Amino acid sequence: MTDRHQAPYVPFRCSKKTSDLISQIAKEQHRPKSEVLRDLVDKGLSATGAKVEEGELYRLIQQAVKETIQPQVERLAAISAKATHISGAAFFMSIFAATRDGSPAEQRRIEEAAGSARELGIQYLKLKDRDIDAFLKEGAKRIIDESEEL
C-alpha cells in the first residue's frame, strides 16, 4: 500500500446517494471513507480488467486455455478409446486366426500367451504412477518366460 503522504490526491464528485452509501460502508466497517473509496476503486479497476493482481493474469490465461482445449482433449480421448477397442478386437481376431489351423498343443500355447497378454493389458489399465516402459518390459519378459516353460 502506498504511503498516503506520497500518494497523489485525486478529488472527484459523486451523487449524494453515492456519498451517503460510501459513508454508510465506512461507518459499518469502522474505516475512513478515503480507505473505503481506495478499496472500491481498486476492486472496480480489477473487475474491468484495467488492473490485474499478481497471479491473476496467469489464472485468467490458464482458465481460457483450459476452456479452449477441453473439447479437443475430450475428442482425442474418444478417438483413443475407439482405437483401443479396435486394437483389442484385432488382437483377439489374430489369436483366433493363429489357433484355427494349429495343433491342439499349439492352440493351447497361443491361447495361454494371449491370456497372459490380456492380463497384462488389464494390469496396464490399472496403472497410476508407475513407469510404463518398465512395466511393459517386465510384462514382455514374463510372457516370454511363460512360453519358454511350455
Task: Write a concise synopsis of the structure shown.
By secondary structure, the protein is an all-alpha fold.
Task: Pick out its properties.
150 residues, mainly alpha, 5 helices, rod-shaped
Structural class: mainly alpha
Strand content: under 5%
Task: Count the E strands.
Answer: 0
Rg calc: 34 Å
Number of contiguous helices = 5
Record the SSE blueprint.
Elements: H1 16-29, H2 33-48, H3 56-100, H4 104-125, H5 132-149
Structure explained in plain terms:
This protein is mainly alpha-helical. About 75% of the residues lie in helices and about 0% in strands. The chain is built from five helices and no strands. It has helices at about 15-30, 35-50, 55-100, 105-125, 130-150.
